[in-house]
Every structure is written in C-alpha cells, then in structure tokens.
Amino acid sequence: MAETQADPTQLTTFQVVFDAADPHAAARFWAAALGYEPEDNSGVVDGLLATGHLPPESVVEVDGRSAFADVAAASDPSGARPRLLFQRVPESKSVKNRVHLDLHVGADRVDAEAERLRSLGATHAWESADRGVRCVTLRDPEGNELCLS
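^ thats the sequence. predicted structure below, dont judge the formating
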C-alpha cells in the first residue's frame, strides 16, 4: 500500500477531548489553568430546545445559561491553541492516561504554577527529573495527569 502525504495546503485543525464525570467542572478547571474561556453554547442549546431537537433532560443551567448536560468546552480566546472538549462518561478514570498535556511554564515558574493549579483543584502526583528537566506531575480534578516543566 502506498503511503499518502497530507496536502500541505490544507490545514488540519483539532480539538483535545477529555472524558469526565462532570464536564462543566472540568471545563472550568482547564479554562482557568490555561487562560482559556469556557464556551457559552446557550444560543445553540436554546435553539435546539425550541425546535424540539434536544429534550429538556439533556440541558442543565450553568452560570445562569442553558448548557448541554453531557458536554462542555473551553477555547483559547486568541484562537491559536486547540479547543478542549469535555464529554460525560459513566465510568471513572481507572488507569494512567494514554495522552496528557505537558504545560511548559519554565523552571522558574513550576512551583508557583503547581500551587496555582492545586488552588483550582489539582492534586500532586509525583515529581521526576529522569530526562534532565524537573517535571511536576499533577492530576486535574477528574484524575487526569498533566505535567509542568
């Protein structure tokens, strides 16, 4: 089978998707962690409710606005970084992440950033320097690992 190359004139955009028990809380945490903004999809939700395309039990109120009960998102206000989507799943996290975010803040900011993220609900997991750079691993409120270096 011949290998095909991506067309360099076509940009592939992507979002990062997290499974979550509480997608709205996860979106708030990551928005605060990264300087993102939780998305307001109330216009879409209200429109879908009004036309009967979304049942009322699929809607919750978040910060005084209608929201999808089972998904929430956070976006970079500049549009430069990928969108984060959080989807409700019934099972809790039970094993180490296969994918996680590395937040590069600089060696002089690691401790302050770790403290800031803990104040938002993260917990300390472990530290290492096995690859030459100090790395502090935290868990977000859903238990997903993230690394600070």
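The helical segments are 23-34, 42-50, 110-119.
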